[in-house]
Amino acid sequence: xxxxxxxxxxxxxxxxxxxxxxxxxxxxxxxxxxxxxxxxxxxxxxxxxxxxxxxxxxxxxxxxxxxxxxxxxxxxxxxxxxx
Length: 83
Description:
Layout: H1 2-26, H2 32-50, H3 52-82
């Protein structure tokens, strides 16, 4: 699933950017773990707004696959009933 890989990569890149910005801003005051935790929280909040289009494409692809699988199951059920 190409959309999943793209969305995951964008989330990782957003986290890396947040981590880098916070590291350079607070490296003298905090260790890496609190900075990483804050970067995780900030990137999670930002991803809601920044990655909306990529998330919508991923959701659409997942919905298409689910409908395709449901259709196959229904066809198999119908074929089984005909026998």
